[in-house]
Design brief:
This protein is mostly helical. It contains eight helices and four strands. α7 crosses α8.
Amino acid sequence: MAAKKKADAAVENTAEVTQESVQEEIEQVAADNAKELDNKKYVVDHLLSTEREGMEDLIAYMEEIGFFEAPCSGGNHLACQFGLVHHSRNVMMAAENIGYALLGKVKYAEIRDSVIIATALHDLGKCGDYGKQMYVPNMIKDGRPTKAEPEQKYKQSESKPFKRNPALLPLDHATRSIKLATLFIDLTEDEEFAIRYHDGLYESANYAVKGNETPLYLILHYADLWSSRVTEGSTDEGVMNKWQT
């Protein structure tokens, strides 16, 4: 009986040590991520670290089409200049933490390059296409014309600063992300699947993902959801900051 108790105690101690080690790894990843404050540098450096053929050309194209300056949404999370790259970085950081926590260091390392690529490029399509931005300033009427000033004035909406560009046909941004990325790099089947369905069942057209979820898809979906709903919230401050005040 005494031997059994010792064995049980040893198992419990081992489990505690293992859990502590995992937590330490997660905290170290978070600390390393927090050191990089430049969103563009963070995204670019991580994409280059994958050494995927054609990546330098893709990054140059991202610069050309305004990825690093575009808003992330019309009036929801990070609807501001530079919002898209800020959101992409948030998703990349969240995915790294989720991957380490759920898969462990060794298993996560096997898909880390794919996680970097899928998270960094999942919203690439929000840059638009065919020389047209996906989001344009949402201009609304500013007061009414008067006899003294008969010309109608306009201003950019504060509640919804941007809107979908009516001149750009409404292809879903996930499909467009894949199209633009594959102009320069090859995506794996898993990466393409994760990007295409990253919005999950929030999109009615994504029903095909049900029952076909992969670890990469789940990591991207949860990281995107956490970033947009919690880290960023409906404003630049984010829900997380509200919890901490």
